[in-house]
Specification:
single chain; about 160 residues; alpha+beta; five-stranded antiparallel beta sheet; three-stranded antiparallel beta sheet; 2 helices
Length: about 160
């Protein structure tokens, strides 16, 4: 009888793994990133997919900014239902970095600032959205555009901002 019980437990564990893989097949995160109210604003992360996503840290990877995150404490993820967005206010480091980039660009020029956004699916699968904040100065007219370059399945740490 105990051998049959062990067999049932084993099959249950295998089936649970199969179910997790099936959930991953049906979940493709889709986000739209927008820098709102430049340069002193926020990053808006819109969920354009059809399932809830959970947003963790935002890594602002720029040598002119001393911080590596936007919006404060990332000890917990934030849920973003389909069709909704979550915003992270920029802090002084990001605002100063963007202002300094525009100063360095002068009258004409452009630069991309890489931004990584850590995401989780409803079953805990982890992703990183690779985004760009594109700064452009043309005849001293400044603009900020954003682009989501890719979304990669990547197992980032829950305990730290930068792995």
């Amino acid at each position: 009888m105990s051998l049959a019980f062990l067999g049932v437990v084993y099959v249950g564990i295998i089936q649970n793994g199969i179910n997790q893989n099936l959930l991953d097949l049906n979940f493709i995160p889709s986000v739209y990133v927008h820098w709102d109210n430049p340069p002193n604003g926020q990053i808006d992360i819109s969920n354009t997919g059809d399932k809830d996503i959970f947003v963790g840290a935002i890594i602002f990877d720029d040598p002119l900014a001393s911080s590596t995150k936007l919006g404060g404490d990332y000890s917990q993820t934030r849920v973003v239902p389909p069709g909704n967005y979550y915003y992270f206010p920029s802090d002084t480091d990001e605002q100063n970095a963007i202002t300094e980039h525009f100063r360095l660009l002068g009258q004409n020029g452009e630069v991309n600032i890489p931004v990584d956004i850590r995401l989780k699916s409803i079953n805990g699968t982890k992703y990183i959205a690779k985004c760009l904040i594109h700064l452009r100065s043309q005849n001293r007219v400044q603009s900020i555009d954003t682009q989501t370059a890719s979304i990669l399945k990547e197992n980032w740490s829950d305990n730290s901002i930068k792995d």
